[in-house]
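Ticket #4471: structure export looks truncated?
Reporter: QA, pipeline team
Priority: medium

Steps to reproduce: submit the single chain below to the structure queue and open the exported record.
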Amino acid sequence: MTESADLVTPSTILRPRMPELDSVRGLAILGVFLYHTLYAQPDLSRWSTPYRLFLTATWPGHFGVSLFFVLSGFLITGILVDGRCKRQYFARFYKRRALRILPAYFAVAALLAVTKFAPPSFLLLSLVYLSNLTPIFGIPIAYPVLWSLAVEEHFYFVWPILCRKFTNTGLSVLCLGIVALSPLSRYVSLSFTAPGGTAFYCNEYTWNSLDGLACGALLSLALRQYDWARARFAQACGALLIFSTVSWFCLMPLGIQSRETGIGAAFQISIVNFAFTGLLGIFLHLGSGKHAPLVQIKPLRFLGYVSYGWYLIHDFFIHVYDRVMMAAGFAHGANHIGALLIRLFVVGGVSLGVAYLSRAFYEEYFLRFKEA
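Actual output as written to the record:
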């Protein structure tokens, strides 16, 4: 094999279609769903040790949102950088984003309004993508999954301008600055919002959630700026995964597992973002080579296909199921593993079915206009 064939080029890693990224989306949404259905609701102190360990194993799933951010930073940066010189740069980008994001988002907002699931004040702010900043206005985040969509939209408002104005090198420096300063931002935010206590919502403020997007952008820019040997690229991604794992264990005595301490608030997400950047690179490397079937997994790709709708709707069905069970005189599974697993499969089946119908028969209608 010639040396040029060993280089990571647009024809290898960066392809027009990268099916392994659907698997990444699938992993992210599956983690979020398992976390919300198995870990976030029950009082774990009331469980026996085996069941408590089983449920605790789903705790890392809440980092699925961070994986979405890394993936989004990677994809959006690539789209914008590659399209710098094309006509209608801004119009084309915002049209495609609007067609992808808004139909399902507005449908869910309407559902929350009709069912009175969330108060009008929260929904009004959410319609202008301020759902992650409502605590600043004294309004609780009534439907938590919307916070990450607000961060994404803020990213979409600013990043196209910067990608058009700066060179790839300038963007890389900017991203490195964001990654370096984000832990300090989170530390300061925790200090101001919860002196002597805990305020998890401050981690969801946009300025505290940018480093995942920046990490993904850095990976996208690095693949476009440098001629990586495939083996060297894989080694770098593996090293990033190892560094993240070792850092996590080294910082455990300082509270890295919790965002209640300064170290935890500052560095927990940073380490997770580094790990996911390495993981994304590994998926891209494997997906562009002979081992592609290892990362182009059909069930995960299906979950990736419906991931947006499933992310938006699953929390609603969790709460509907719990209310129905409580009204019928049954607990939702807080003391019985069988009841909790029934809840998992019922909510999962219904919400996944709704997400598929939404994608296939509602969202796809709007997506047809992306190329018009």
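Status: closed, not a bug. The export was complete when the record was re-opened. Leaving a note from the reviewer for reference: The chain has one domain: 4-367.
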